[in-house]
């Protein structure tokens, strides 16, 4: 999965031109261990796999304890439970801005986007808890009393997508370290997105808000920055499901009265919502190259153009678009911007 870093949001405590901006990517030495949990409630019907032509010896389902005929749908409520985790090498990118404010250093992270799996597949155990109306089966003959939830192992779910994408500003607190460089802390607001393939049913978890805390060190050499950060993050939430209905999924239902047999049923239904929780722990290694910008490029897109002129005019007589460092945006800044028109 590829990500494009968003335009960096610089701190407002000093003129924007004073900041150094670095495009950063994560190193393959990074590692994240993630635990996952999903609860997916749904409703629908169960019916035997009997078919007069293709499966004449299949199971038939009949409402009630005794009597009746045919092969009838039985209403149910149920929930998938997904529990598992991943141990992966993440990929992704972000931008890091750095500037001196007097004797103090300040920074910010923006555009952070992490593909936690980076092409690998996580795994999780899937269990089905189901509650149904009273019914009985033929082939095998068994009674299923209603109102008694039953939990069944349901194979393995494959976690195919797990991403963390920054959703808001993230200032970085910097402290000069002995021997050079800095230690830092940051709390990056993120949206977590997850997708799992459970028994042929794709379960997409809508973006769930969370915080990605980062603590570590960084150092500069020439036009390069190197960052090492540890993280411990959790997020959870419940979202409505947009998954389409599923039809005739095979399910081997253990018999109840008597026990010891298996009824071969088909399950159809509709997922109503998805509740998910996730925790991530690990170490991230990243390096970045400084982006060369010019003071007149007020939006830092590499070119001085009408967008920068608009920023200057909107900040006229304020310090917000000061180019020459005299504390206000005025005719001198306008002249500087027009003289630098074009690519930096």
- H-E string: EEEEEEEEEEEEEEEEEEHHE
**Low-confidence residue ranges:** 1-17
Mean pLDDT: 87
Shape: elongated
Taking all Cα atoms into account, the compactness measure Rg is: 29 Å
Q: Termini distance? A: 30 Å
- What does the largest sheet look like? 14 strands, antiparallel
Number of domains: 2
Helical content class: under 10%
Question: How many runs of DSSP E, i.e. beta strands?
Answer: 19
What is the overall number of helices?
2
Structural class determined from secondary elements: mainly beta
The amount of beta strand, in percent, is over 45%
Topology:
Layout: E1 20-26, E2 31-48, E3 60-63, E4 74-88, E5 91-101, E6 104-115, E7 122-132, E8 135-138, E9 142-144, E10 150-166, E11 170-176, E12 182-198, E13 201-221, E14 224-240, E15 246-254, E16 262-271, E17 273-291, E18 303-304, H1 306-314, H2 331-339, E19 342-343
Antiparallel strand pairs: 1-5, 1-17, 2-4, 2-16, 2-17, 3-8, 4-7, 5-6, 6-10, 6-11, 7-10, 8-9, 10-12, 11-12, 12-13, 13-14, 14-17, 15-16, 18-19
Helix pairs in contact: 1-2
Short key terms for the protein model shown above:
single chain; 344 residues; mainly beta; Type 1 dockerin domain; 2 domains; 2 helices; elongated; disordered N terminus
What does this structure look like?
The radius of gyration is 29 Å and the shape is elongated. Helix 1 (306-314) runs antiparallel to helix 2 (331-339). A hairpin with a 2-residue loop joins strand 5 (91-101) and strand 6 (104-115). It contains two helices and 19 strands. Strands 1, 2, 4, 5, 6, 7, 10, 11, 12, 13, 14, 15, 16 and 17 form a 14-stranded antiparallel beta sheet that branches. The protein has a three-stranded antiparallel beta sheet with strand order 3-8-9, with no helix packed on it. The chain is mainly β and 344 residues long. The protein folds into two domains: 16-291; 298-344, Dockerin domain (Type 1 dockerin domain, Orthogonal Bundle).
